[in-house]
């Protein structure tokens, strides 16, 4: 089964994720066990707002807080130490996109498959 934004080949797994309103320093990518986890967290304190007629009344701030978490299972032959990310922001076009590349160890040499014998204990 395929997930939207995920392309799987023998060489790599490529994940593309649109992250509108997030900057690179507000996003974290990490692996935990056999999962790739992408976290986004942003908090904008906003502007001072005066409520009431003629500028009298209570004052406060309107802020924005946004979080997201995405988890993806990693293939067994993933090279976790070689994972890298690209952030692209096309102003005026699409939302900012985070692209995560997970290289894979080849499981095929030439046209032959590598055989792994598993001992039964």
From TrEMBL:
Protein name (database record): Alpha-crystallin A chain
InterPro entries: A-crystallin/Hsp20_dom, HSP20-like_chaperone
Domain SHSP: 8-89
SUPFAM superfamilies in the cross-refs: HSP20-like chaperones
Domain of life: Eukaryota
């Amino acid at each position: 089964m395929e997930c939207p934004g995920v392309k799987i080949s023998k060489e790599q797994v490529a994940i593309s994720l649109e992250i509108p309103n997030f900057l690179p320093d507000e996003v974290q990518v990490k692996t935990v066990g056999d999962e790739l986890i992408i976290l986004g967290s942003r908090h904008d304190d906003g502007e001072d707002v005066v409520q009431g007629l003629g500028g009298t009344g209570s004052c406060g701030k309107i802020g924005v807080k946004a979080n997201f978490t995405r988890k993806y299972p990693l293939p067994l032959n993933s090279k976790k130490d070689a994972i890298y990310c690209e952030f692209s922001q096309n102003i005026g076009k699409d939302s900012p996109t985070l692209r995560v590349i997970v290289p894979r160890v080849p499981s095929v040499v030439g046209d032959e498959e590598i055989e792994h014998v598993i001992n039964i204990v």
